[in-house]
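Example 3.2
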Amino acid sequence: MLLSHKTYDYLVVVFSSLDKHRVENGKYDLYSLTKNHEFSTLLVRDVDNTWYNNQMKSKTSVNLLEDLRSVISNYKSVLFFGFSMGGFGAIYFGARLRVKNIISLCPQAFIALEKMRAIGDTRFLGSITDIRDIVVDDLGKISRHQDTSIVVYYSGIESLDGVHAIYLQKNIGADVVRLSNISHSALSVFNYFGITHKIILSCFGIVKKYDLLEDINSKISDRSFVLAISNIKASQYKSEFTLGVCLINKSSKAWDDCLTKKISISVLIKEARNGKIRQDYAIPLYYDCILTNETYENKITIDYSDLPVGQYEIYINLKEGEKVSFEDIGFPPTRLYFEVNKKVSFGNVFFNGEYTGTPQVICDGSQTIDFNFIKPDEYIHEVRSGRLNSDTGQIRNGAVIFSGKIPGLVIFGPYIDLPSGYYTAYLEFLDMPKSGSGLLDVISAENAKHAEKRIEFSRVHSNKISIGWAIDSPQTGVEIRLHIDESTEGVVSGMRIVRE
């Protein structure tokens, strides 16, 4: 514990949140509060990340509970405060000690593994599983004194936070407040906008009652914007491409240099398969003033020279200060999907589920690269991408040409990972065989077959054939195959997979 004494009138006890590096960095949540002069501060932390269970058992627990009791007895008015895991600790110890006020930001109401899995909350399972002896795993079972006020603020973006908050409301009578445009990272947002300090002063009655929701909604409204990719240019000679990014201020106020100097464009590149972060950086805005409804062009250069072959997603958003992403205040990132093989191909460029940009061909030197701007949940693979192969056909000029006289796999691929859902795959032909037959099927890793369909080419009256299937769990290495028994000549140009 760390006590910063300023006055005997008011004391705020802050329980720190989950931090796997707490031992090394020695930090406490809200250490900055120790510099204020309106109230005293007692900082508490759980370096073992046990949701304070290690402080609820053995001699250590007795000492912590009694140490807290000893300290708070010297102050007229006491507030227990915590975020996430710290919110769990604030509610538990605050209820045990019957303090008058408890404020908890986005807490977990329970950490029982079976309950966490039942609601689909896997965010903290790794840390919870590491706890050796759990003493308290459900705050809904604790008793709350009638004079103790518990206020829970929860994220309106992260639905699981709402599940925990409502559970506390039903079981221990907590008052809950929904933060409609705030992510689970509420503490970072509150600290940046000075809201944490205002809540504490309001709780103690040092200032008049504070309307948090009005304040935060006003600040978010003043930062309303649209960020979209306008163009992409790639170089034949460098392992990089440049994104043209349009920024539009959609708020009712111009952004002056006091704000623009704090704002940057954040770029996050993750592996599409496992979410591993490969690059994370920010680029300052080029403009001192951004007027309402005006469009401002920015450029981002993506260097993929150190990225191994694979599929990636770029997340582009605004960032203010060091910690606050605009995603934390309700603005989802613009996303770009790309794939690194022998060259780079693009797709899935969208904002808020809508099209952004236009299909185009960018020429640089002697190289021509096609950029397909496509819908979310739609996967386009051209033969030239390298992810589609053939056993019996010949790949020429970005297409598979087959005679149909030799039975076998004319085309197969693209070996992609798909989430659960309903899908349709389309094989697109430049030249559809006039006669003959084949088998179109869908398999995934370990040769699990999901669908198959007989094809009679004489009955096909378009330039594509299709097959639909459903999967109830994520599948890896999904492959669509066309096996020809015998047919006339044909030419396949690519494949499109759509999630319905």
